[in-house]
Amino acid sequence: MSTFVLVAGAWHGGWCWTYVADRLRAAGHRVLTPTLTGLDGGEPRPDVGLGTHADDVVTLLNTEDLTEVVLVGHSYAGLVVRQAADRVPERVGHLILVDAWAGPDGASMDDLAPEPFRRWADRNTADGLIAVPPPRMVGVDDPEQIAWLTPRLVPQPRRTFAEPTVLTGRVEALPCRAIVCVPDNGMPFGTWAREFGWPVDEIGTGHDAMLTAPDELTALLLK
């Protein structure tokens, strides 16, 4: 059986993987769902950047002495897991990016983002923190799911979007595949994945697939 490390995207903590993690564990797998620094609902951390979050994942992999991990990053965490895997490729067996951002060495999320998204982030930033988006912005429309999601989301440090990723190139030697949500609503996650040459699976649901389609997402993670 495999060890999965599931890393959540912006505004989310490890809690967002609850339904998928339960399904993976029921199938006999070990699952870790870390919450990245500053996203635990505690003291706001505008000082936190992408590098801090990559450090979080590297520390987890080293502390738990994990190898052959299936390292999964959702959304913004695509940048996080690729940077972490680049630093400790010997601990990663496979990368899976779920509707995730990805770019080359030196690229930040701001560099990669479509202009409307970047303008939205700027308009909604105060004191170094990006305000929580409405659930529908992350593809959640069901009232019960909105009620579960809304109180758990926390502001995202703006620096995480501005800080460039640091890659040596070692991550490119690791097996990687992408799962993209369709329709894409103007976000080029599938385009980037195909440009990198990764296999791509599509899932017909909103961006927060771990909440809106946990059965389908789990099946694709286990593919």
TrEMBL record:
MF (Gene Ontology): catalytic activity
Alphabetical list of Pfam families matching this protein: Abhydrolase_6 (PF12697)
Domain of life: Bacteria
Domain (AB hydrolase-1) ranges: 4-218
Matching InterPro entries: AB_hydrolase_1, AB_hydrolase_fold, Sec-Metab_Biosynth_Hydrolase
Protein name listed in UniProt: Esterase
